[in-house]
C-alpha cells in the first residue's frame, strides 16, 4: 500500500450557520507539523469536529489555521487540543499556538 493511500483524508462537511457567526469568535492558530494538503485537511477536520466550531480553514503554506467558534461552548484550549489530536495516528504530530483572536465578523467575509 502506498504512503499516499495510507494518508487519505476525507473532508468533514458542516453546514454554515451564518446566524451563529454574529456572536462567534475567530482564532488564528500557528500550526506546526503540517507537510502536505492531507495534513492540512486533518487539522481542519479536527477543528470542525468540535461541537461549537462553526467553520475552519487551514493555510498550509503559511502554517495557519483559522476557526470561527462559539465561545460559550469552545475554548481556545479546546482548539489547540483539537489540532494536536488531529495527528492521532502515530505518524502525524501537529502543534498549535494562538496567534490572534477576534470577532468572527472581523475575520469572515460572507457572500450574501
Biggest pleated sheet: 4 strands, antiparallel
CATH architecture: 2-Layer Sandwich
Give the SSE order as H and E letters. HHEHEEHEH
The amount of beta strand, in percent, is: 25-35%
Structural class: alpha+beta
- What is the subunit arrangement here? single chain
**Helix segment count?**
5
Indicate the CATH topology: Alpha-Beta Plaits
Shape: globular
Radius of gyration: 14 Å
Task: Give a structural overview.
This protein is α+β, with helices and mostly antiparallel strands and 112 residues long. 32% of the residues are buried. The chain has a 4-stranded antiparallel beta sheet. The chain is built from 5 helices and 4 strands, in the order ααβαββαβα. A hairpin with a 4-residue loop joins strand 2 (53-59) and strand 3. It is globular.
Set out the fold topology:
Layout: H1 3-6, H2 18-21, E1 25-32, H3 37-48, E2 53-59, E3 64-69, H4 76-85, E4 95-103, H5 104-107
Antiparallel strand pairs: 1-3, 1-4, 2-3
Helix pairs in contact: 3-4
What keywords describe this structure?
Alpha-Beta Plaits; 5 helices; alpha+beta; 30% helix; globular; 27% strand; single chain; 112 residues
Concise description?
The chain is of the alpha+beta class. It is 30% helix and 27% strand. Strands 2-3-1-4 form a 4-stranded antiparallel beta sheet.
